[in-house]
Amino acid sequence: MISTFFSHELKSFWRSKNTGKSIAVKIFLGLMLLYLAAIFVGAGLLLDKMLEGVFPNDDLVVAFCGILLVYFVFDMVTRLQLQELPTLKVQPYLHLPVKRNTIIGYLALSAIFSFFNLSPIILFTPFIVKIILPENGALVAAAVWVSIVAISIFSNYLALYIKRRSNINGWIFLVVGAALALLVCGDYLWHLYSIQKVSNLFFGNLIKTPVLVLLPVLLAVIMFFVNFYYLKANLYLEELSSKKAEDRKSTTEIPFLGRFGHIGDLVANEIKLILRNKRPRSALIMGLFFMFYGLIFYTQKAYGESMKVFVGMFMTGIFIISYGQFMFSWQAAHFDGILVSKIKFRDFLKAKYLLFTGVSTVAFILTLPYVYFGWRVVIIHFVMYLWNIGINTTIVLWFANFNQKRIDLSKGASFNWEGVGASQLLLSFPLLICPYIIYLPFHLLHHTDMGLAVMAILSLIFIFTREFWIAQLEKDFTNKRYKIAEGFRNK
Fold first, then answer.
1. Global pTM exceeds 0.70
2. Would the pLDDT of 241 be above 80?
């Protein structure tokens, strides 16, 4: 039956009307994977030399044991961002005499065939053969190799389980991401513990006692069955849909938005769109991840105040940039309905402004703990918060009138360039350059306070004249609406 599923997926691919485009994308991704594989092969062959350079005072095997868990921590971070869920259109099989265990088994086993599972084998096998095998024998070398494979499989199914649960409740992904960020910061920023020492403790004892290989193997098996039974419990899409609707009812029924009337209803619908679809939801989640962005720069004395302007704009406005650059592509599937509905486009724009202002306000509040690095950091964040809700929001919505590429909301965010065009590239320049056009002349003349004050005043002018800008955006949209709609119809 496994071969039948595989055959059906191949036929579905070749019979699709987008086969030519899919082949081109897969060829490009294949070349990229070959390039990455070549890098991993080279790094694996030179790993012993690299470890000698980084850890000149340590034994090679000790240094190797110390980096393994560090590698898998960053591997998990990468998996959560880039690894795609294995898919199979199960609906046609549910009414056929096909066992559910067979369908689930195919989904679970197909997840093993991933570059993420191959990369540690390519990277670490040469070292095991060159160093561990001659020094410790075949049994120890095999135990180390099997443990690396088992931990990789455990990470694979753990990442898939987290992503599947996150499709139902997006907060799970956020909590896991925050936990990983705290784990890394606890080691490399706050030095509360050492992941390297924990890694060396386990793998060092594994070399002395190879039977410990059973522990990672057991973890991999347990994680496989956790995935298996979770898929089995949620195989019927109707069950998942009802759970999603029930879970999300409380998160989108926001009493606060009721005071804004019709515009509040539009914002509530936008929030539902974000929470119920993978790609827009990833823009929101990534925005929350970037709340830790300041830890990279504020802990380093090499970065001056001009960098704080960039960081403040990025942290309080990342959602405006990442989500707003695809306006109005998120509504591409029902854009024709918007054009013929009773909704005034002016109200539609006001809803966008309200959404961006609300999210940016929450982002600014989340950055308040950076007061630890001084009150001036908070002042800069506040100025850039005003800049984002006043000027950057207007720039983003103006560029939206030039975007005619649709987005399929059902697709994931990893390696997905749908909807990306020249307007997104052009958008990045004014968003990044405009603040410095105002700030840098004052900074060079050592009047940074005056520069921040001018930026705040300009931002407030844009905020208080928002009705004027909405009218200009509406006028520009009226001239371009049919071209935008025609672009959204092209699949």
1. no
2. no
